[in-house]
Structure formats: C-alpha cells, structure tokens
Amino acid sequence: MSTNIADNIKRVRDAIASAAIKSGRSPGDVTLVAASKTKPAEYVRQAIAAGVDAVGENRVQEMMEKRAQDAYSGAPLHFIGHLQSNKVGKVVGLCNLIESVGSEALLTMIGKKAEALGITQDVLIEVNIGKEPQKSGIFPEQTGDVLGLAAQTKGIKVLGLMAVPPINEQFENNCYYFDAIFQLFIDMKQKKYDNVSMQFLSMGMSDSYKEAILAGSNMVRIGSAIFGAR
C-alpha cells in the first residue's frame, strides 16, 4: 500500500464506488469516514484535503489535542470510540455526530448536556450485533426500546445505527452479521419514532468495508487503508 494518503483515499474511493454500484446505489450514497486514531494532525489535514467526507476519532484526549492543532477544519468530526460517561461534556457540541451511543444511560446523558447547551446533538445507536461481552453497544433486541427512549429525549436526534461485527470471524460470518444489522436498520426505519431519522448505517472498516457496503452499509470507517498500519 502506498504511503501517500491521497493515493490511498483514491483507491478506497474506487473500491467504495464498485461496491456501491454492485449494490444498486450511487458511489455518492456512501459516506467515507477517515478513522484517524493514533495518527497526527498533519495526516488528518491531508485526508481532508484529499476529500474524505468526515474524520472519526476514538479517544477524547487525542481528539482534543488534534482539535487544538486545527486538524479538523473542512470536514465534519465524528466520535467513533467508546465514550465514557465522564467524557460526555467534552464531546457533545464539538462532534457533528457521535456514532457510539451504546446504552440508554449514555443517550440520556448526551441529551441532558446538549439541552443545557441549547443544541441538538446528532447520534447513532451502537448495536453489539454479536452480543460480545467485552464490547459496548446495545443488543439487537433492545433497539426498539432505545429508540423509544430517544423519541422522548430532548437534545438528541438519532440518525441511524452503528455496528462492529465480531473480529476474527470467517468471511461468511461477517456477511451474516452485516445482513443482520441491515435488516434491523430497515425494521427500525419503518417504525417512525420521533427524534429518529434512520439515514445512516455505519458498518465496515478497512478489512471489511466492501462486504459491508454490499450488505447495505452507507457509512464506512476506514483507518489503516487510508493512513497505514497503526
């Protein structure tokens, strides 16, 4: 893989376009989020200059440091990592989208903080599709209840779902999880909750984004395929 970030992004864009077309959609229907965990501000600026749709950060402290270096100018900022309750105040209002809202308690806290700031915070609900005990996220069968809570929570708007399927699975199993979360996304989209607009299904990373798009993902979080190995 090239060490040139712009070249890598072009390669990823070409692969996204191919998968999108195969799935009956336009390449422009898929949002490319550059996952810049551990990468310096200069790399982020290069990725934005090369046309990524958004930048995703996993760690609050790292995000604050890069923000102080004006790393994110010109692109929306997403928070895509596990968000601890004591860090909510540092993320709400600074990120365009919090993708990793994995509990009712976290959803409520974000809503309260956003309401206090007089804003509406866009979020995705993180679904632990493999029901892995070491991962955050709600279980699939809890999704309706969480969206019901979102409908009554001021200060937030749910824009869709996010998922990370189990790692070290065979290709067929990844496809199974991708298909399962897509079906859940479609089911929830049909239910019409207040404060909920099922626009985005965020799934697929550097090793799986093409399969995820074929399964219905319209937002992918790409790190090593853009920036190189961590």
Fourth-level CATH superfamily: Alanine racemase
The largest β sheet comes out as: 8 strands, parallel
Q: Output the number of helix runs.
A: 9
User: What would you report as the Rg, rounded to the nearest angstrom?
Assistant: 17 Å
In spatial order, strands of the major sheet run: 7-6-5-4-3-2-1-8
CATH domain class: Alpha Beta
Q: Based on Cα principal axes, name the global outline.
A: globular
Instruction: Round the mean pLDDT to the nearest integer and report it.
Output: 94
H/E topology pattern? HEHEHEHEHEHEHEHEH
Amount of helix: 40-55%
What ranges have pLDDT less than 50 throughout 5 or more consecutive residues?
Answer: none
| Total beta strand runs | 8
Q: Architecture in CATH?
A: Alpha-Beta Barrel
Q: Give the termini distance in whole angstroms.
A: 14 Å
Number of domains: 1
What is the fold named in CATH at topology level? TIM Barrel
